[in-house]
Input
Amino acid sequence: MTPEPSGAAARPLLVVEHLKKVYPTATGGVEAVRDLHFSVPEGQLVCIVGPSGAGKTTLLKCIAGLLPITSGRIELLGEAITAPPKAMAVVFQEYGRSLFPWMSVEANVELPLKSAGVSKPERRAAAADALHAVGLDDAGGKYPWQLSGGMQQRVAIARALAYKPKVLIMDEPFAAVDAQTRADLEDLIRVIWKQLGVTILFVTHDIDESVYLGERVVVLSNSPTVVQDDVVIDLPAERDQLTTRSHPQFAALRSHIYEQIQRAKHNRGTETASTPTVLRRH
Ligand SMILES: Nc1ncnc2c1ncn2[C@@H]1O[C@H](COP(=O)(O)OP(=O)(O)OP(=O)(O)O)[C@@H](O)[C@H]1O
Output
């Protein structure tokens, strides 16, 4: 099964319509997200960037059904999201806290399937496939604390994949690992995305990472949040850390997104991007 990733004609899998999120507080509420509007076609790999405090985590939690929205609508496969959807899996930055140290790697990966009532033989097979996909065939019997940080994050990714999600949501998943491990994990995400055809929403602080990974980068404004820019990453689909990062278009896209983030720091929910930005090749 190797579905073609994304494509202009693909129908939107995920729709975020006029999303507003106000956190209730004793003093009347914090308007974190003002009016977010975008959609994601099936199979796309979208990176989300924005200044610190822009509402990236708030957006992901709303999409993941972990946080009630104030108004607007979020739809997955045409259904409004009001609770964590079965077709979605989330990977957070804190892999150390998301894995249970007293359970083997295999048991950690199987856990969500066990909670979903999947039979033991099916769980075993799904966990073995997922560990294979992240390059950890031999780690099933180990414990998380016997693995490096990068390997633990691979386990967290395997656990999400074992669930066979249609949408994989990742909130700064590589922020806590060293640069070399991070590069390896970025390449792993591209491979998994291409092999499994899963739709990925990937939040990162790292502009270079967003350009390297994404087919598209959505730039959020400062909170209260709107979409500040929506950039098409028209780099060749085959990416590698040396060639892609030294491509002239990579540098142009990186500069454009950097400028947008600088602008975003002063844009508190006023200017909204309406059409995707396509940078002209130099
Ligand atoms: N539980 C909460 N109660 C009140 N305000 C909150 C709460 N969580 C977040 N906020 C506010 O909402 C806004 C967006 O926060 P959020 O954590 O979503 O941003 P972020 O872009 O993920 O930040 P960072 O890049 O620093 O991780 C911020 O102004 C933050 O202070």
About this structure: The chain has a mean pLDDT of 88.
